C-alpha cells in the first residue's frame, strides 16, 4: 500500500516534470501524453510537444533499468531526468531553488545518488552552493547582486539572448534561465559524478561540448578521492591512493566512484612488534582541504 502510494507520487512528479518540459517547446505533436490507466512498456516512449524530449525506459549498463527523460533528436542518449531519484540536470526554462537539489549520479553508468549536491544556500544567503555528503560545502556561486552571482564574473558577458533571473520567495531563493528563440542551442546544466558543475551544449551537429565548468580545479571538489586518496587533476584518473594504501572497492574505483569508498591500508600496522617494527613515516607533498580537521 505504502509502496503504491509512493510510486503514485513519483509518477505524478514525473508527469509534472514532463509537462513542464513540454512547455519548453511550442508546436503540437501526437504521442506526448500518457493518460491515466495507460502504460508504457519495453521500448515504448512518449515524446514532448516540440519533439525535444522523450520519456521511456533506459539502461546505462544493459542490466538495471530506469525510467527517464532524454533528448529525442540527439543520437547520443543524454538522460536529463533519473526516476525515483533526484536529477543531476537542470534545463533552461525550469525554475530552480528553494528546497530543490541537483544530486550527482554515483558514476557515469549508475544514476543512483552520489555524494555531491547543488542547491540554494540553506543559510539563506542569496547564492547556490555545492555540498559533499549533505554536510561540507566546498564551492559557492557568490551572492546575487541583481545581475550576476558575485563569483561568476563571466556572467557579465552572457549573450543578450540569455536571461538569468533570481529572486527570494517565501519558500526560498530561486533562479531561472530563459533563452530567447534566436539562441539556437540546447544547453544543459549538469552536476557531474565528480562533483563539478558544467554547462554542456550542442550548437551544431550532434556532439556535446562543455562550455563552462566549476570548480576550476577538479581537485577542489571535497572528498573526491575518499579516505587516504590523493587528487591530481593533471592525471587522466584524478585519484590515486597514498603509498601503502589500495582502493577499498576496485569496482567502485574503476568506475570513477573514488570518494564513496576511498583507500585502505595494504598491510596492518605493526608498531608494537617486539622484534622491531617495519612501519615508517612517508613524506607526502599534498595540499590539505581548507577545513582540514582530521589528523
Ligand atoms: C519548437 O519547435 C518550433 C517549430 O519547429 C521551433 O521554432 C522552436 O524553436 C522550438 N522550440 C524549442 C524550445 O525547441
Ligand atoms: C549495472 O548497474 C547496477 C547499478 O550500479 C549494478 O547493480 C549492476 O550490477 C550493473 N550490471 C552490470 C552488468 O554491470
Ligand atoms: C556520509 O555521511 C554519513 C553520515 O551522515 C556517513 O555515515 C558516511 O560514511 C559518509 N560518507 C562518506 C563517503 O564519508
Ligand atoms: C617479527 O615477528 C613477526 C611474528 O613472529 C614476523 O612475522 C615478522 O616477520 C618479524 N619481523 C621482523 C622485522 O623480523
Ligand atoms: C611540492 O609540490 C610543489 C608543487 O608541485 C613543488 O613546487 C614543491 O617543490 C614540492 N615540494 C617538495 C618538498 O617536493
From TrEMBL:
Signal peptide feature range: 1-27
BP-aspect Gene Ontology terms: recognition of pollen
Stored InterPro entries: Bulb-type_lectin_dom_sf, S_locus_glycoprot_dom
Record's keyword terms, sorted: Disulfide bond, Signal
Domain S-locus glycoprotein span(s) in chain numbering: 139-248
PANTHER family (UniProt xref): BULB-TYPE LECTIN DOMAIN-CONTAINING PROTEIN, OS01G0958200 PROTEIN
Protein name: S-locus glycoprotein domain-containing protein
Lineage: Eukaryota, Viridiplantae, Streptophyta, Embryophyta, Tracheophyta
Amino acid at each position: 500500500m505504502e509502496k503504491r502510494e509512493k510510486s503514485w507520487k513519483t509518477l505524478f512528479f514525473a508527469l509534472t516534470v514532463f509537462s513542464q518540459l513540454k512547455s519548453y517547446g511550442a508546436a503540437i505533436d501526437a504521442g506526448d501524453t500518457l493518460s491515466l490507466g495507460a502504460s508504457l512498456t519495453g521500448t515504448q516512449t512518449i515524446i514532448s510537444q516540440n519533439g525535444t524530449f522523450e520519456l521511456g525506459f533506459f539502461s546505462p549498463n544493459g542490466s538495471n533499468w530506469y525510467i527517464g527523460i532524454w533528448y529525442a533528436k540527439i543520437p547520443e542518449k543524454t538522460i536529463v531526468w533519473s526516476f525515483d531519484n533526484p536529477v543531476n540536470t537542470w534545463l533552461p526554462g525550469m525554475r530552480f531553488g528553494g528546497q530543490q537539489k541537483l544530486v550527482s549520479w554515483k558514476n557515469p553508468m549508475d544514476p543512483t545518488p552520489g555524494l555531491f549536491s547543488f542547491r540554494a544556500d540553506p543559510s539563506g544567503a542569496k547564492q547556490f552552493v555545492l555540498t559533499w555528503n549533505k554536510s561540507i560545502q566546498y564551492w559557492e556561486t557568490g551572492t546575487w547582486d541583481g545581475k550576476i552571482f558575485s563569483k561568476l564574473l563571466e556572467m557579465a558577458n552572457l549573450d543578450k539572448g540569455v536571461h538569468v533571473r533570481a529572486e527570494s520567495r517565501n519558500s526560498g531563493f530561486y533562479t531561472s534561465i530563459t533563452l530567447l528563440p534566436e539562441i539556437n542551442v540546447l544547453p544543459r546544466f549538469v552536476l557531474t559524478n565528480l562533483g563539478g558543475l558544467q554547462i554542456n551544449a550542442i550548437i551544431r551537429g550532434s556532439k556535446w561540448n562543455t562550455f563552462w565548468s566549476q570548480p576550476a580545479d577538479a581537485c577542489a571538489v571535497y572528498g573526491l578521492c575518499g579516505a587516504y586518496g590523493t587528487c591530481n587533476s593533471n592525471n587522466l584518473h584524478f585519484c590515486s591512493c597514498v603509498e601503502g594504501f589500495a582502493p577499498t572497492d576496485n569496482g567502485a574505483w574503476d568506475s570513477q566512484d573514488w570518494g564513496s569508498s576511498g583507500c585502505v591500508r595494504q598491510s596492518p600496522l605493526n608498531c608494537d612488534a617486539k622484534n622491531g617494527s617495519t612501519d615508517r613515516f612517508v613524506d607526502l607533498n599534498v595540499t590539505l582541504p581548507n577545513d582540514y580537521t582530521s589528523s
